[in-house]
Design a protein that fits this description.
By secondary structure, the protein is an alpha/beta fold. It contains 4 helices and 6 strands, in the order E-E-H-E-H-E-E-H-E-H.
């Protein structure tokens, strides 16, 4: 897991007000979209109030990263929809119940938010950005549809940050990455 600007969330320290979590397997073609977008965003953020996490899957320990966050952004690949289709939706932590896989391999963003609420009383604004993939086989290259969608996802996330947090970004240089 790669992290940027990770703070100790004890009561006497400041934690990141924005947490961006890009997850998936960068060695499985389109499944790496979340990981790779998080890497691009890390390079573009110049604010110490943003924590970027790149990981293969969501883990219960990430609930602590959300402890004092005002905004959490999740980025992942999807399998439902048309290849290259980008979706954004607002999340809530109310999706976890006693039968949810909160501590297993199948941890969802909603379950992680619910865990943060349960353990820390955290209730950050949260959004999930997904890109529907076409190829999840071994490889580091995106399918053409996902490569075309890459810049629009970065722009949408930056737009959300500008709208909700008043952040500004330099012009993008993402064509070399996608």
């Amino acid at each position: 897991m790669n992290r940027h600007e990770i703070g100790d969330c004890s009561a006497d320290t400041h934690c990141s007000s924005i947490v961006v979590i890009g997850y998936g397997n960068p060695l499985r073609s389109d499944d790496g979209i979340g990981w790779r977008i998080a890497g691009v965003l890390r390079g573009r953020f110049d604010s110490s109030g943003i924590e970027v996490i790149q990981c293969h899957e969501l883990t219960p320990e990430m609930a602590e990263n959300m402890r004092r966050a005002a905004l959490v952004i999740f980025i992942d690949a999807a399998t439902d929809g048309f290849p290259g289709e980008v979706r954004q939706r607002r999340l809530s932590g109310s999706g976890m119940n006693d039968s949810s896989p909160a501590l297993s391999h199948g941890l969802t963003p909603e379950a992680l938010l619910a865990l943060a609420a349960h353990l820390y009383g955290a209730s950050p604004d949260a959004h999930l950005f997904t890109v529907c993939g076409r190829s999840f086989c071994h490889g580091e290259n995106f399918s053409p549809e996902v490569a075309r969608a890459f810049p629009s996802v970065v722009a949408a996330i930056e737009g959300l940050l500008v709208e909700q947090q008043g952040l500004a970004f330099p012009p993008p240089e993402i064509s070399r990455i996608a």
